[in-house]
Task: inverse folding
């Protein structure tokens, strides 16, 4: 069970490392810039979560996470050698999987440390969104989280589902919460669901 | 007394949440992007302060701060429904009030934990400026703190006033320091006070 | 010995404070914006390192670092009064020295706290690169670390050299690691060495 969570966590790290590598590729970065962007995306959210919850930062005490990032980034680079370009959709899909993994793992870590429910929901959302936000700020893209595409909202819903089920079965909560997040986000990408956007009707600045 | 400080702190959080919401509105963000920007602005500075001083992060152990943010952001959204546009000045004024509250609360938290005077001044300035800096970076504005408008300087002065008075009366220090910060900043906005700006005279890069 | 490390650390802080001041000058910031940018550059990386390793944040308990920043920034400002413009190369060179100091000091701090070798390498790289990354994000430049110029790669090599030698002699490791980092980076600037850059061959987004 513990082991299952552990591998689930590594899977999330790998997927976000891939998403960082894909964006670095689009931005024509060099080999090491790729590793930096992959790492920031993969461990940025979890690092902030652990700092705020005053837990040991997960990767500082278990370097295998860093090896996961390196393997995922190098694998992606090799795979990209055989492609002329990458679809924006590939990047969005990798990001959606990372989002689903990290939302439930973030909520779970707070839940296991016995924080109140709302903090678990916030931590799930933050773990999932912060790494990608750093990735976009560094690569000078508009952060996905701030665009009107049900991004952070899916994390909020997925983490809430996790919290509701977690007292009965953490494993079931992980699966249901993760699947809900993933489907909502993929649906938002596919059918361009979005929340109402605020708009100024009058003069612009 | 303790309770007074507690409410003062919530007031600062609410005001900065409003300022984040107003900027999100200007940038046409969706409903949840607004909450994210409001939260980052409201708790970014205090989070960094608590991490650096190795204190428990204030909102992780007292979720009422999160409810304050949600209420302030939703209230602002409702209010904005009846407005065609917002003046840049409204945003600047909300920001100035947040700045005043957070400068003295940040200095006070470091002072109560018995850090040296210069650290209290730095923490006041950082608590006040960091959230707004994150807000501007995320929304891709030039951070106010880096523009030549007596921004961080007012925090520095306000926090210094707090530190000078705090040994006699924390409450008086809070009021005087806060009022000094607020008036200096409002004056800087109104009459465009600014520090000398460095300028290159020769070739530009 | 301890004292030697201590001064070495201050030297790194001073050099990065100078590099932050130079960039602020290029960007026409005001007097306090300069201090903010100098501070962020000088202590950003070390702050993140200490937070992640769960060590006391170095400058919060020893304010002399802040005085070092102020003196370095003011000294640079005075020096700039007598110059019409600054060469981009001056900025790059100051940055290279800061990079060399911080790489070995970051690796050393992790090594002394007995973290595994890969974490020491990561911490060296992070200490050196993070402050400059924040500087560039705030000043809205493309972060040097993400451009194809052997930036983070030199830190990785320098920190690895440190770790390989540190078990025999921390002092020797500091000197050799620092010199290797400095020479690699200066060479990269002078002869424009770079790693292969990834490029999309087909359509752009």
Result:
């Amino acid at each position: 069970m513990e082991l299952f969570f552990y591998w689930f966590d590594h899977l999330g790290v790998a997927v976000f490392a891939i998403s960082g590598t894909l964006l670095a590729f689009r931005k024509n970065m060099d080999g090491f810039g790729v590793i930096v962007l992959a790492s920031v995306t993969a461990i940025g959210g979890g690092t902030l979560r652990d700092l705020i919850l005053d837990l040991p930062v997960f990767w500082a005490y278990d370097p295998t996470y860093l090896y996961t990032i390196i393997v995922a980034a190098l694998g992606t680079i090799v795979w990209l050698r055989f492609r002329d370009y990458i679809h924006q959709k590939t990047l969005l899909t990798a990001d959606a999987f990372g989002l689903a993994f990290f939302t439930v793992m973030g909520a779970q870590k707070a839940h296991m440390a016995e924080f109140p429910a709302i903090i678990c929901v916030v931590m799930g959302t933050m773990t999932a969104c912060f790494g990608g936000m750093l990735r976009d700020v560094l690569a000078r893209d508009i952060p996905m989280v701030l665009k009107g595409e049900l991004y952070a909202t899916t994390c909020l819903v997925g983490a809430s589902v996790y919290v509701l089920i977690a007292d009965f079965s953490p494993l079931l909560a992980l699966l249901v919460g993760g699947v809900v997040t993933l489907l909502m986000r993929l649906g938002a990408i596919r059918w361009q669901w979005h929340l109402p956007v605020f708009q100024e009707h009058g003069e612009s600045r």
In short: The interface with chain A takes residues 51-54, 115-116, 118-119, 122, 129, 133, 137, 142-143, 145-153, 156, 194-203, 205 of chain C (CB under 8 Å). Residues 2-191 of chain C form one domain. Chain C has seven helices and no strands.
